[in-house]
Design a protein that fits this description.
The chain has helices at residues 29-34, 75-82, 110-124, 137-153, 191-198, 241-249; strands at 14-18, 38-43, 63-67, 85-88, 91-95, 103-108, 161-166, 168-173, 179-184, 201-208, 211-215, 236-237. It has 250 residues and is of the alpha/beta class. The strands form three sheets. Strands 3-2-6-7-1-10-11-12 form an eight-stranded mixed β-sheet. A two-stranded antiparallel sheet has the order 4-5. Strands 8-9 form a two-stranded antiparallel sheet. A hairpin with a 5-residue loop joins strand 8 (168-173) and strand 9 (179-184). The two termini are 25 Å apart.
Length: 250
């Protein structure tokens, strides 16, 4: 029986990165490229221009991206295909099982990726985007389909690091006196819990005293947060994913 020290992916980062628009989530990806990680972005937000503010010019070739529209039903199948084998007309990076631990796959954002999954389910059932004639059972179809892809990308068949970027939404918890809590923004009530279970890190990008900061452990308003290396990463960590990844890998 192998020991844990022989586990092939014990340092693999599977990060659910949360934050409001403008919190700096996408810009953080530049810090990975600046430290020579190969960053591959499935782009559904169409907001990658912010990388220019943080990316060293000499490191631009460390980032590749594939942009697809979030509301196009056909985008779901395209996204599954590109996150299985990264083959484009001008770039062939091969099957993702060949990617090593110096590569980071990013879905930006997983919230829009979830929307795309739902659009595909609606199309298959002949339902327009206004959801006229919507059957509640389709939530279960979408949830299962989306979970299947999250489970695939987080499985031990892959060695690359994974980042799913998610928006957040505030939900009132009546059991705690109506206190508003922040949750990952996925469709339905079940997916936030489901997706978080597959990730070994759930962090929140926010601002404190006007400066960007990463919360890596549970806060009063964010009970989802967790860190795979709390002895190495501060609960309030510097806004530098590249440095944190290197710190956890050593």
């Amino acid at each position: 029986m192998p020991t844990f020290s022989q586990h092939p992916n014990q340092r693999r980062m599977k990060l659910l990165l949360l934050g409001d628009p403008g919190a700096g989530k996408t810009g953080l990806l530049a810090t990975l490229a600046n430290l020579d990680y190969k960053v591959r972005i499935l782009d559904l937000d169409n907001n990658l221009a912010i990388l220019n503010a943080y990316l060293k010019p000499s490191k631009a070739d460390n980032i590749s991206y594939f942009s697809i529209p979030a509301k196009d039903p056909d985008s779901w199948k395209k996204s599954v295909s590109i996150t299985t084998k990264w083959t484009l007309p001008d770039e062939d990076l091969g099957d993702l099982t060949t990617w090593d631990s110096n590569t980071v796959l990013v879905v930006d954002s997983a919230s829009f990726w979830n929307d795309t999954c739902m659009s595909q389910v609606l199309k298959e059932n002949g339902i327009a985007d206004d959801k006229a004639g919507f059957d509640q059972s389709l939530w279960g179809v979408m949830n299962k389909r989306f979970e299947t892809q999250v489970a695939r990308l987080t499985s031990d068949r892959y060695k690359f690091h994974l980042i799913l970027i998610s928006h957040i939404r505030m939900i009132e918890n009546k059991k705690t006196g109506g206190i508003m809590r922040a949750f990952p923004s996925f469709l339905g009530q079940q997916l936030p819990n489901v997706v978080a279970r597959y990730m070994n890190n759930v962090w929140l990008a926010t601002r404190k005293d006007g400066k960007p900061v990463l919360h890596t452990q549970t806060t009063r308003d964010m009970s989802y947060l967790k860190c795979s290396a709390p002895h190495r990463v501060n609960a309030e960590a510097p806004f530098d994913l590249g440095a944190i990844f290197k710190q956890i890998e050593t």
